[in-house]
# Entry
Amino acid sequence: MIICNVLNVTKHHGANLVLNSVSLEIKNDSRIGLIGPNGAGKSTLMRIIAGLDTADEGNVTRHRGLQTGYLPQEPTLPDDSTVLDEAMKARDYYAGMQKKIAGLETRMGKPEVYEDPDVLQSVIDEHEAALKAFEDAGGLNVDGRVIEMLHAVGFSEDEFDLPAGSLSGGEKKLLYLARLMATQPELLLLDEPDNHLDAEGKKMLERLVVDYPGAVVVISHDRYMLDVMVESIAELDVHGQHPGRDQLTMFSGNYSEFATDKRAALLQQQASYDLQQREITRLRKAIRRLMDWNQYVAHSKFVTRARNIEKRIDRMDTVERPILEPKRIGLEFGAERGGFKVLELKSICKRFGETAVLEGVDLLVTHGERVALTGQNGAGKSLLLKMMMGRERPSAGEVRVGARISIGYYAQEQETLDPDLTVVEEVRRVKDMHESDAYAFLGSFLFDFRKARRQVKTLSGGEKARLQMAKLMLMEGNLLLLDEPTNNLDIPSCEALEDAIEDYDGTVLVISHDRYFLERVARRVVEVREGKVVEVEVRE
# Structure
């Protein structure tokens, strides 16, 4: 059964056309992964489906009484509210139902109702229907289900009284998700729910979505997660990027099946395009020959035949030339060779007051290694990277950087960017170059002239991530320290980063919870566990 139908939706942001005649059907058991490059309008489409934004043109038709739950990309929670208080806001959904039930009970007590048997019976029937709807929606057990969902997403009883505003980004998402799922909406809309989650958090999210009784539409750049959670892919292109194509295309299957099917379809389209172009070339040569003959032997039959061939060309269903390789960032790392010993940690300890976060960490990284640094959120991974950078001092132990080693650093929170500078000023701060060269360079990272002149603080998360990558390329470091580099990057940009690392002659140490990315780039995995660093066997 179709519970939501998006039909020919068009949406502008100012003068910018974001969505152009987009259509999408959502059934009651759908598991849809909504993918596409940054700026394609995925979040805008999600908000329109949720009823939080309106389309300029087109319609969104929802099944009568459809309950929708929406998880925003960056949920904000008040500092003066606890974890339990925020989760219990799930009750708000039932407030309207309870108000209706109370209103009907008040009506039953009025003389004009109870003195008229027909009217009274009508109100009683309505009251019973309202009570049943309340019970069917789970209103009688909402408090118990909230507690159950808080446990399901990983919160313990001891954490229920924590200030909600003090939670990490991943914890805020899980809390918001628990509140949503406690009401069991028929349609669950998740905008990048996996951002900021560690490996355990992602597995937990996957289990919840796979077992969810309603429909789910999820925006994600995590290809591994899309393989596990979804049964169809809706690919949304940036409007105008592929003229002649629908902006949204549906594919059956998970992400890996989508990637295979899409590649096969593009290759088939390329073959059809080549065949048609050869046929058009042959026909146009025939037209030229007929017109040449007409010059020497003036006869109307040559002109008529030439015109008939021209009409035949015009009647052809034109096969669009496929774009086999989507436009993506022009990332390429270059570096001079440094020493064999690139980085060494000797007995590193880090304490905050009486609390020891790291205790006796030893690690040696040598030239050319691809090392993944894994572990749960809060284990101390980012802290280790900052000590390698010299931005944090260990409480004890020593960080040794090898001879002729220059470091390029990608920060998870993007604090390496100056929010008040423009994009073009930010890259010229790294490398002295003519302004026109800076604009041309930024173009290869998908920043047009207008965007290159914007202040950094106005950029989206994906745009800031691409800008950090651009700076990293200009630094030409022979040791790359990357803290969650795939967060906020779209899939084509993730693939560009993977290719760049594969071709890189330097050394890479990366923190990431993106399993698809790590399987592609990591040759060695070390886990930060209980203050120590433990080697993990890499499966071939």
